[in-house]
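Async update (no meeting this week)

Hi team, since we skipped the sync, here's where things stand on the single-chain job. The sequence we agreed to prioritize is pasted below, unchanged from the tracker. I ran it this morning and attached the output directly underneath so nobody has to dig for it. Comments welcome in thread, and please keep replies under the output.
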Amino acid sequence: MNNHTMEDLVSLCKRRGFIFQSNEIYGGLQGLYDYGPLGVELKNNLKQSWWKSMIYDRDDIEGIDSSILTNPLVLKYSGHEDTFSDPLLDCRNCNSRWRADHIADNKCPGCGSEDLTDPRPFNLMFKTNVGPVEDGNSFAYLRPETAQNIFTNFKNVLDSTPHPLPFGIAQMGKAFRNEITPRNFIFRVREFEQMELEFFVKPGEDEEWHKNWTDLRLDWWEDQGIARDKLELYHVPRDELAHYSKATVDIMYKYPHGLEELEGIANRTDFDLGSHTKGQKELKISAKVEENTQSNAKLAVQDLETKEWIVPYVIEPSAGVDRGFLAILNEAYRIEELEDNKNRTVLGLKPHLAPIKLAVIPLKKNDENIVKASRELKNKLQQAIAGRVLLENTGNIGKSYRKHDEIGTPACITVDFQSIEDNTFTVRDRDSMTQERVHLDEVREFLLQKYNI
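Output:
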């Protein structure tokens, strides 16, 4: 059965330690969440899967990790200071605030009143003071996206690791948007993580690469456990495109709250590199930069054959880690009816994403020999497996199995009295619930072949 709601997912996340409301003991803070012991493992596994696909599996992409605090000039010339806003209005009846594009029939979504203010622009960027004196001039923004510091590091990356076109620069990290109405659990929040690639191509080849990256991203999400028929492509109409975009394709997924964007693949043309090149020229002319800055850096690539300088076009696949987490959790969650008229909750996560790769369970928690053998097996497997192996010494096999079904552990290994005699163990599969007896000398190869862990 897969007829579950967002409340079911929220309950699972709280109960099993995936996600907590941030600052909950003080009433929480809207739009902010903390990842718990299992959540941080799943989140890190998702990020590592993305990083591997971008950096390790390719030779034409480099990675960076840039600062969160951002020079206001970066966001001035990127267009964010002028365009990064949402229309905001207030309800005079209940004093709530809403994005104007979320208002239907001119009624407040909270109380139904039609007594609303006129929309006004609301800047989404967080601003903070830099340095000891708050004089209004020494400030920075918390970055609203990870992309801009990729563009400002364009020359640094090329100078240190030269690449001909096409090539990419990838980054994962926190971004911040002062959302008017955070909602739908971790789908729309104020502090979130992004996985972004800026892939630089020759002008004229951008449309082909845009399609290529759309196909590649669909394949990747399928590898994370989201069936292709659960994903839809939305070609953003021209009048809805961002200020930098020539074309954008959104990969849409049906979340519990409806069909929403999982990832966007944008053709940013040469907007960003061109804008920052223009910004440097203007600063140089106005003599507002120090001599040791890279204000005359050419944000372009020299063609090896023609020797001409090319300002590349950029294809940008941009995915939210939190939205990906929610989609994968939603897709994996299911409730199965068992023969004894009972149900079991299962997270059918791909093994590479599972927070716990393997649980080792002693049949009796107070039997010294069994517990010792279990600990030795756990330590041996932990050294061989890239991921967390857990010793689950509860003394209740049935409850342990149900717990690990619910948190997505691919397999459990039970250590019993026979294990002490012949070094064999029972391996129970999460999805089929079948059990196989495996010898100690073969258990590592068995797990590698069956679960790729």
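Quick observations from my side:
The longest strand covers residues 258-269.
DSSP finds 13 helices and 24 strands in the chain.
Reply here if anything looks off.
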